[in-house]
Amino acid sequence: MSPAADTVVGLLVLIGAGFVLVGSWGLVRLPSVMERLHAPTKATTLGVGALLLASMIDGRTRYGNWTAHELLVTLFLFVTAPVAANMIAKVHLHRTRTVAGGEADGIAGPPPRPDDEGDWATFAEPRRNCPGTPPDP
Amino acid sequence: MIALALPLALGCVGVAMLLTLWRLVRGPSLADRIVALDTMVVDAIALIVLIGMTSGTDSGFEAALLLAMVGFVGTVAYCKFILRGDIVE
């Protein structure tokens, strides 16, 4: 294995592990749910992406076998992370609205409501006066 | 450099997993616990990849791929259950 490839793989592994650690540290350290959602969904996903890239280059240069497994895992993680984060944010909004006492707000305070009559579409109840639903009697 | 970086990275990801476990146990809200579980799955994928690089085998990648898929489905199932009280309607 050439020194250049060795350096590149080593750096990618260190960067990836650093991002994974920062993501989990943010999950522990940040003050509210909405802020805690940021750290793992962005930093950790990026870190795992770097680790998988390192693994791909490592397999190619050290063992000479080219595999697309890692690309598949990376693609799947990058596609699913935003969807999972969106679902979790919906759970938080839903719980803020329906559970008595609610949950702690972050530094930025509670999120603004979408408009005067509407509400967040967390499936708790149909939105009032939105297109496609019958008007209230 | 890889020989130096791999043990360090394994340590970092292990510590990250412990921090995530702390958040999973501590809560305090349901959304926190779902985030922590989702993050633990991603950390587990990172560990599998690092162990695969250390041992020089690629037999762990099927497990990593399965974890990536099942972890996402699990997260969405938890969220749907809390939002609707049901998973498949």
TrEMBL record, chain A:
Transmembrane segments: 7-28, 71-89
Signal peptide: none
Region (Disordered), start-end ranges: 100-137
Keyword field: Membrane, Transmembrane, Transmembrane helix
UniProt-listed InterPro entries: PhaG_MnhG_YufB
Entry keyword annotation includes Transmembrane helix: yes
Source organism superkingdom: Bacteria
Pfam families tied to this protein: PhaG_MnhG_YufB
Keyword Membrane: yes
Alphabetized GO MF terms: sodium:proton antiporter activity
PANTHER family to which the protein is assigned, alphabetical: ANTIPORTER SUBUNIT MNHG2-RELATED
Name of the protein in question: Multicomponent K+:H+ antiporter subunit G
Automatic annotation (TrEMBL), chain B:
A Pfam family hit: MrpF_PhaF
InterPro entries named in the record: MrpF/PhaF-like
Segments passing through the bilayer: 34-52, 64-83
Principal location class: membrane
Subcellular location: Cell membrane
UniProt keyword terms in alphabetical order: Antiport, Cell membrane, Ion transport, Membrane, Transmembrane, Transmembrane helix, Transport
GO cellular component assignments: plasma membrane
Any one GO molecular function term: sodium:proton antiporter activity
Membrane topology: Multi-pass membrane protein
PANTHER family registered for this protein in UniProt: NA(+)/H(+) ANTIPORTER SUBUNIT F1, NA(+)_H(+) ANTIPORTER SUBUNIT F
Family statement: Belongs to the CPA3 antiporters (TC 2.A.63) subunit F family.
Protein name: Multicomponent K+:H+ antiporter subunit F
Organism: Sphingomonas abaci
